């Protein structure tokens, strides 16, 4: 596939190159502040009562108005959350993604495409939510959720809807209701809902303990026994802090590309799995490397960081409030006792705007 792209870089004097003439990032006249009451069908998550300050919506945005579209072009924004990078597509005018999973694979290709860990679609909300998020991994598979992706998604909505100040949205995802809040400092705090520990729901075939969970169980990967805990944040995660009989992992020494795929495709994980290799630095500070289902080694995984803090608490390594160092930077994760929800706070940044011939 030949991909040619036009890009606009978000600097103070934007570079605008030959973009055709219809505003892609249309200012939505139907915008209303995020709703707080809705009838949501997926009961895994409960609506957050996060308070927000009134967002400010202005009439124009230089970044948004720099993106003009014409027929035959796919316009996108490239974002990253700690180096976990995504192509975001404004899909508010349709409930079906504008491009196929095959096209997403081509776009994600780092040599022949734009290059990304996934493609994310901003779709109309359903079940009373403000918006729907769908995502294709770089291999074309569709995961239920993406933590770094949802922070990028929130910043993307702020941009296309031209909202400033502190504000939050309700997002329908394959993992249920997710509530990101864009903070004054530009970081995004996300109510990621409750972790799922029941083995069959993660899903994993590993034998469960009396509570139905897989905590510090043994997993044989090509003759090496790893101690693993399995957690779903809507998508499946296998977390390991050590091999059997050895001390805490030194994650920088792992040959991730060699061992990651063996976890991902292990017969104990019928829906494949994301795997987090974790080193305990202190009782509130962890370091991780990740091998993602459908995307391989990435610089960060938000759902993975949430899942590994849950695993760290269950295994007795840390308290419920941790800093997680990922290859691309830190995330602050809290597994709150009062509501059993996991909260993730971190950055999300636009890289550039572009357009591709369809
Ligand atoms: N990078 C993401 C997770 C994306 C989905 C994952 N590859 C899967 O298939 O479950 C994150 O930040 O959570």
From TrEMBL:
It is found in: Plastid, Chloroplast. It comes from the Eukaryota. Its EC number is 5.1.1.7. One of its GO terms (molecular function) is diaminopimelate epimerase activity. The keyword Amino-acid biosynthesis applies. Belongs to the diaminopimelate epimerase family. GO terms for biological process: lysine biosynthetic process via diaminopimelate. Its main location: plastid. This is diaminopimelate epimerase. Gene3D superfamilies: Diaminopimelate Epimerase, Chain A, domain 1 (3.10.310.10). The keyword Disulfide bond does not apply. PROSITE patterns: DAP_EPIMERASE (PS01326). Pfam families: DAP_epimerase. HAMAP family: DAP_epimerase (MF_00197). GO terms for cellular component: chloroplast; cytosol. It catalyses: (2S,6S)-2,6-diaminopimelate = meso-2,6-diaminopimelate. Keywords: Amino-acid biosynthesis, Isomerase, Lysine biosynthesis. Pathway: Amino-acid biosynthesis; L-lysine biosynthesis via DAP pathway; DL-2,6-diaminopimelate from LL-2,6-diaminopimelate: step 1/1.
């Amino acid at each position: 596939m030949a991909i040619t792209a036009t890009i606009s870089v978000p600097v103070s004097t934007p570079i605008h190159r030959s973009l055709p003439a219809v505003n892609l990032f249309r200012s939505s006249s139907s915008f209303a502040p995020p709703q707080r009451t809705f009838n949501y069908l997926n009961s895994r998550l409960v609506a957050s009562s996060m308070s927000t300050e009134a967002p400010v919506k202005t009439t124009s945005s230089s970044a948004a108005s720099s993106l003009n579209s014409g027929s035959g072009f796919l316009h996108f924004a490239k974002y990253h959350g700690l180096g976990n990078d995504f192509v975001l597509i404004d899909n508010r005018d349709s409930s079906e993604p504008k491009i196929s999973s095959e096209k997403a694979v081509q776009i994600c290709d780092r040599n022949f495409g734009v290059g990304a860990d996934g493609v994310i679609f901003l779709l109309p909300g359903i079940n009373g939510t403000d918006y729907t998020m769908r995502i294709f991994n770089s291999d074309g598979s569709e995961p239920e959720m993406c933590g770094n992706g949802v922070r990028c998604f929130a910043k993307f909505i702020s941009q296309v809807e031209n909202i400033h100040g502190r504000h939050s949205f309700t997002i329908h995802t394959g993992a249920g209701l997710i509530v990101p809040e864009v903070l004054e400092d530009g970081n995004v705090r996300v109510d990621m809902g409750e972790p799922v520990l029941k083995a069959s729901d993660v899903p994993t075939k590993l034998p469960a303990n009396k509570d139905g969970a897989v905590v510090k169980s043994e997993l044989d990967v090509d003759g090496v026994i790893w101690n693993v805990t399995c957690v779903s944040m809507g998508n499946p995660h296998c977390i390991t802090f050590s091999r059997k009989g050895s001390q805490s992992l030194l994650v920088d020494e792992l040959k991730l590309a060699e061992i990651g795929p063996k976890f991902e495709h292990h017969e104990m994980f019928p829906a494949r799995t994301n795997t987090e290799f974790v080193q305990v630095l202190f009782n509130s500070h962890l370091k991780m490397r990740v091998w993602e289902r459908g995307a391989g080694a990435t610089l960060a995984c938000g759902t993975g960081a949430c899942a590994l803090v849950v695993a760290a608490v269950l295994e007795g390594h840390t308290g419920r409030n941790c800093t997680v160092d990922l290859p691309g930077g830190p995330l602050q994760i809290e597994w709150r006792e009062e509501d059993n929800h996991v909260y993730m706070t971190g950055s999300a940044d636009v890289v550039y705007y572009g357009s591709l011939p369809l």
